[in-house]
């Protein structure tokens, strides 16, 4: 047996068991390193920093092509964020990448004070967000980061669901003036945009499927099961729209109110605590827009619990964040 | 008061030490007097934290820092006030440099003023980074030093003024290891060793010694000096070379919190304070030319 788990053989049957080798083999949606390397071929401003995770997040792909613009800060996330701020004042557009829990939570103050307050063009690639690190436990989960980042002025917050949308959103935001927080999954996220052919447009809610009885608003890892849930419900004669809320801040409040005027029920599915996340953003939009009469159901991690230990796929099942769970919740909402 | 303010005028400090020593002493006196005046507007402020670093700031802006009439000159030396609460002492110097109108000083801390207790890089020309949260400045400086080197700006140095109690912050040591690992010879940490935090002496509150030993063990080149001796500060700062790759430099400036006003000297109670107008007048007359 090789000691390098990135070299171990992988078989499809392993999916669901979520061992580490499986995770590495399936990380085809970790395209950030590749996309940034391509962008950096023609853009001298782009630099990448990571905190001893270049193999996990594939920023190694960037290092191989642009070693002079790659910085490994070691396990030192707060220093990494502040260093990126300093580099940004020198004309660089630094991308810092590490686990969401160790940046969206651990570095909240550095993000606020050193990036957002001076409005510097630093990009945060917060990967393995939500409960996607499964049995690693609460220390490695990030179910509060939408709430934290959504309340930081000047910060753009994005939750692309798959490799296509991640690549697209990276390309569409290179010239955003201030800081950007990319909330992404574990790199084995199921393709949605490639399959549906939908056009990704930064800043607006993207409708992947039209519907009249209800709508599911999802972000990140919940988008693919939301789409499958809608397909399943369609077979029962229920018409459910699926909307991707990839841009969490600034939130497309107008788009959400418009959606609420077309469907009587909205289910919000997110890999986040049901407080302060996407559901709260939707509720804010409805209140601010004076839109009443729509039933909003929040599906996410319970308010007062930390997630159980377990393989991520099993946890999604447990918390109704998989296809079957979303179908069940939607049936309840429609009942 | 004139400060050398153009690129053409910039010369290493060592070339004309005699004149510069007097210039630094004058400027330090001016900083202390302006600090008392401006805190009078705010009715609350950090007197003693400015007084301890008055000679350090004065020396930096008397021919040490490479600055120009353009505060955004890309090849400039940068200064980060990691101890951001001494900004009230820097604003008058930046106004003298012509970076903003002197009238701004009269609005210090008033609603909508660009000038607050802690500096804002987006609102105050000449401020190289917004600061206030202690412990961040050295990381930001390390990022700037690395960025400057990557961009080929080899003559540009980054100076970070830190407090001494601030060295309790863990992020300082994260930055110290990164600066050493990346051989940021263009980074200079100046520690205002004024002996005190808010609650008492540093060694009572949470010890920071041995500062020199700690930085040395992290791979830094360390110099110690009397931070109130204008001549010594000037010559030590002048000796700091500009090398994009090498050991980062730490200058430990031994100072006294509150130096320059006898009743504030090493006084815990004047970290944050307010002087009634009559007391402010009296204090202005007591300020020593150190």
Automatic annotation (TrEMBL), chain A:
Domain Transketolase-like pyrimidine-binding intervals: 29-192
SMART domains from the UniProt entry: Transket_pyr
GO molecular function (one): magnesium ion binding
InterPro entries documented for this protein: PDH/Transketolase (IPR051157), THDP-binding (IPR029061), Transketo_C/PFOR_II (IPR009014), Transketolase-like_Pyr-bd (IPR005475), Transketolase_C (IPR033248)
Protein's name according to its UniProt entry: Transketolase-like pyrimidine-binding domain-containing protein
UniProt xrefs under Gene3D superfamilies: 3.40.50.920, 3.40.50.970
Superkingdom of the source species: Bacteria
Coiled-coil regions listed: none
Needed co-factor(s): thiamine diphosphate
Membership in a protein family: Belongs to the transketolase family.
Keywords assigned by UniProt, alphabetized: Thiamine pyrophosphate
Native source organism of the sequence: Prauserella flavalba
């Amino acid at each position: 047996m090789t000691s390098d788990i990135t070299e171990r053989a992988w078989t499809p049957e392993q999916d669901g068991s979520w061992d580490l080798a499986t995770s590495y083999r399936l990380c085809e949606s970790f395209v950030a390193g590749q996309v940034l390397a391509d962008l950096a071929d023609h853009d001298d401003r782009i630099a990448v920093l990571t905190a001893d995770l270049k193999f996990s997040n594939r920023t190694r792909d960037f290092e191989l092509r642009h070693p002079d613009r790659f910085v490994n800060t070691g396990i030192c996330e707060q220093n990494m964020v502040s260093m990126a701020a300093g580099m940004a004042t020198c004309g660089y557009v630094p991308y810092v990448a590490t686990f969401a829990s160790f940046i969206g939570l651990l570095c909240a103050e550095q993000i606020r004070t050193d990036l957002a307050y001076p409005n510097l063009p630093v990009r945060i690639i917060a990967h393995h967000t939500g409960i996607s690190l499964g049995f690693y436990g609460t220390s490695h989960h990030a179910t509060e980061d939408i709430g934290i980042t959504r309340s930081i002025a000047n910060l753009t917050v994005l939750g692309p669901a798959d490799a296509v949308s991640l690549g697209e959103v990276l390309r569409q935001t290179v010239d955003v003036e201030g800081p950007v927080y990319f909330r992404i999954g574990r790199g084995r996220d199921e393709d949605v945009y490639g399959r549906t052919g939908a056009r990704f447009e930064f800043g607006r809610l993207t409708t992947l499927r039209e519907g009249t009885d209800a709508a599911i608003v999802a972000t990140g890892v919940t988008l693919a099961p939301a789409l499958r849930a809608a397909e399943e419900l369609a077979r029962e004669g229920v018409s459910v729209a699926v909307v991707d809320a990839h841009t969490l801040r600034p939130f497309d409040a107008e788009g959400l109110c418009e959606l609420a005027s077309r469907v009587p029920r909205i289910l919000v599915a997110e890999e986040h605590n049901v407080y302060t996340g996407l559901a709260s953003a939707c509720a804010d939009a409805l209140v601010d827009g004076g839109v009443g009469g729509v039933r909003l159901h929040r599906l996410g991690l319970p308010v007062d619990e930390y997630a159980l230990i377990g393989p991520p796929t099993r946890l999604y099942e447990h918390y109704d964040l998989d296809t079957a769970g979303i179908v069940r919740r939607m049936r309840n909402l429609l009942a | 008061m004139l400060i050398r303010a153009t690129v053409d005028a910039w010369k290493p400090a060592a070339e004309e030490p005699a004149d510069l020593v007097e210039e630094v002493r004058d400027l330090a006196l001016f900083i202390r007097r302006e600090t008392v005046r401006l805190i009078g507007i705010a009715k609350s402020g950090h007197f003693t934290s400015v007084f301890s670093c008055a000679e350090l700031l004065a020396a930096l802006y008397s021919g040490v820092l490479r600055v120009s009439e353009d505060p955004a000159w890309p090849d400039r030396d940068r200064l980060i006030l990691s101890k951001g609460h001494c900004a009230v002492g820097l604003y008058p110097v930046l106004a003298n440099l012509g970076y903003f109108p002197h009238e701004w000083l009269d609005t210090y801390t008033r609603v909508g003023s660009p000038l607050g207790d802690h500096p804002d890089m987006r609102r105050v020309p000449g401020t190289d980074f917004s600061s206030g949260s202690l412990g961040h400045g050295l990381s930001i400086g390390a990022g700037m030093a690395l960025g400057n080197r990557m961009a080929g700006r080899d003559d540009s140095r980054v100076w970070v003024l830190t407090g001494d109690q601030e060295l309790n912050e863990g992020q300082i040591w994260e930055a110290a290891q990164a600066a050493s690992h990346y051989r940021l010879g263009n980074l200079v940490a100046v520690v205002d060793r004024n002996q005190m935090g808010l609650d008492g002496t540093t060694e009572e509150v949470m010890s920071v010694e041995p500062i020199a030993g700690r930085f040395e063990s992290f791979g830094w080149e360390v110099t110690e000096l009397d931070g109130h001796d204008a001549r010594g500060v000037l010559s030590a700062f002048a000796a700091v070379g500009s090398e994009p790759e090498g050991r980062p430099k730490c200058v430990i400036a031994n100072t006294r919190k509150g130096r320059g006003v006898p009743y504030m000297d090493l006084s815990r109670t004047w970290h944050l304070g307010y002087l009634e107008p009559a007391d402010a007048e009296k204090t202005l007359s007591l300020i020593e030319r150190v």
